[in-house]
Model the fold of this input.
Amino acid sequence: MTNHVDWVEEALQKVYTKISRTSKKIGANFPHASVDGTYQLEPPHWWTAGFWPGLLWHMYRETGDETLKAIAEQCEVRLDTVITDYYKLDHDMGFMWTLTSVAHYKLTGDEEAKRRALLVANLLLGRFNCKGNYIRAWNPWFEGDENSGWAIIDCVMNLPLLFWASKETGDPRFRHAAERHGETVLAHFIRKDGSVHHIVTFDAETGEKVGAIGGQGFAPDSAWSRGAGWAIYGLALLYHYTEKDAYLQAAKSVAHFFIANLPEDFVPYWDFRLPEGVKNDRDSSAGAIAACGLLFISTLVPRTEADIYKQAGVNILRSLYERYGTWEDDGQDGLILHGTSHYPEGKNIDVPLIYGDYFFVEGLTSLKGERERFW
Ligand code: GLY
Done:
């Protein structure tokens, strides 16, 4: 294994230089995709609201820069406006408050942050369907929309908020729901070849599985790469919290599928199973998410296996740094180029995405040394 410290330090320094500038422009707002070099802002209820403050918390931990901490805290306070908005909050409140309030609490012990995160964990628990053993993903998107039986792979990254809440309160209910959702993921989302479904649908009344939908992937039977990234990291976290070997085996299976399908520069296409003629843009965010999951797996497996996962994670992050980074471009707010947010809807294709930037930074900091995970 090569020594990573030099390029990792260099990359983190470049991240710091860049966000020292962009944080003055972005401030306590919620960027999502960078279009023509400028991060577009979303309202606080949008699922991506936690990634910018989460990135700032990581960089605060690395640098001690109080300006970054102050912006992250202001973002968290702004999120209070949506805690009571029943119609807007969905399962992604896990992403949103794990990277704001839980991160804040873990780094500073702030009691107000803990209170917020516990409140949100209760709201997340309220989305659990106890017949189907899944956490409902979204609310109706339009008048008459019926999606009470939909669960999505991304939700594995929302479960750590529930595990955290059980640990903090001593009340196992949160963990019980997370474990049962995890079992549903194992049973219905992970295919034998290691690829994953984005959306699985259930009868919300009986809990019976109904089918699968392509969602942000090309088709129900294709292989959306960011979904695989969520699965690699989320299943590894499920193993960490439950110590059930089936999660580690599933995380490894998805990891092997992901690694085997990477192109030469180690940065994935947005879907690994595209028919001829469909444009195979990259999704750098999928690479960054998977890299964090692969590095985490390398800490969970026996030493004889660890290098496979660590090297794969390093390869992705290093390629993102050297080939996709925007270090010399002051006209670009994003850190990492060539993300694909939602190809089927034609939204935010071939742009920097805030979750790509976030997981790139998380991956770098974890390569620097063991850090307490926000997840
Ligand atoms: N959670 C939605 C996405 O990964 O784009």
